[in-house]
Amino acid sequence: MSDSAKQGPATGIIHNRRHKDPFGSPYSPVYNTTTYRFENTEALLDVIEGRTQGNLYTRWGTNPTIQELEMGLARLENAEAALAFASGMAAISATLLAHGRNGIVCVGDLYGGTQELLINHCQTLGIPVRFLFKEELAQLEAELDRPGKLVYFETPANPNLAILDLQAIAATAHRQGALVAVDNTFASPINQKPLELGADLVLHSATKYLGGHSDLTAGALMTSTELATTVASWRKNLGQLIAPETAALLSRSLRTLQVRIRQHNDNALAVARAMEQHPKVLKVHYPGLPSFADHKLASQQMTGFGGMLSIEVEGGQQAAASVADNLKVFLLATSLGGVESLVSQPSATSHHALSREERLQRGIGDGMLRLSVGLEDAQDLIADLHQALK
Ligand SMILES: *Cc1c(COP(=O)(O)O)cnc(C)c1O
């Protein structure tokens, strides 16, 4: 095979393999095992005492199916190392516990589960946590008052797709001796590579675009070998490893990631343009529209604008609920990133716990609907929205 370092991302991920299969299968078998047999005690001690590399117990992360997946995950973000987890929250919690204990400064809107983890659990453990609105970014430098803190954010953010400047935040953080962790779930590694823009740690809910078919729950961390080693020990002892069968399913999904994301990008742009023309739609939040407030910044740091968008319909919460209920192709469900299109109303789901005032402060209007645009024919998605808006 040719030098894999020179190959493009699609070739690299399709031919991602640790070993040549003795039977000629293009893909590796699933190593559905929890343990590994040794020839004798000496061979076992060689592994335990680190003299030779070997697999001892799957929970430690030493499983060939999982390690092959991690090779592919690292490749996607051009990272030195990757770790696979049982869920996105497992990846996020292990990373925050491993690298956020000196204090975590969050910028902008966060996924609801992450917010809960930070408030209910990290703060309970005594970890200082600060939240800055996007508009308060100028205060970041002062918040990083001593080295060793962790800056944490998402871009594009949920559900208004707000964009944060990856390079600018990383520069400020590094000047103050802080690490930068970015949840890259919404963009996917095809549309945005935060490590190349200065981030130190990249997180994914692989449940979303990486899995892409709404049939698996998994998470991923891509980072340097050094930072990954610390997180791996937390993953091992918190017991957060992905199952080998899920790892194999996720590896299968990664082989089509690039084509899926390109189609998600095209479909979402078509839907966004159609919604922008609709008289009952007051606003469309999509980074790929020139009318979007952060369009210029998005164009600088993203190579595609993703499959997520939100619209604000005339008539507030009631009207939005009725549109959601009348959609037939879009399914009324939370989550995102699958081949099927989904609709959800942030005020009824992810941001239900907030007051109206708090929602408006976060740019979530009363009539907002979040769309995860899938891989159906764009004309059918647009027709579905038109009939539901009637
Ligand atoms: C879904 C999601 C998560 C959590 O991932 P799980 O796989 O559900 O644990 C984290 N961040 C973002 C942006 C998400 O959309």
Automatic annotation (TrEMBL):
InterPro entries: Cys/Met-Metab_PyrdxlP-dep_enz, Cys_met_metab_PP, PyrdxlP-dep_Trfase, PyrdxlP-dep_Trfase_major, PyrdxlP-dep_Trfase_small. Keywords: Pyridoxal phosphate. The keyword Secreted does not apply. The keyword Oxidoreductase does not apply. The modification N6-(pyridoxal phosphate)lysine is found at K208. One of its GO terms (molecular function) is carbon-sulfur lyase activity. One of its GO terms (cellular component) is cytoplasm. Transmembrane segments: none annotated. SUPFAM superfamilies: PLP-dependent transferases. Belongs to the trans-sulfuration enzymes family. This is Cystathionine gamma-synthase. It comes from Marinobacter halophilus. The lineage of its organism: Bacteria, Pseudomonadati, Pseudomonadota, Gammaproteobacteria, Pseudomonadales.
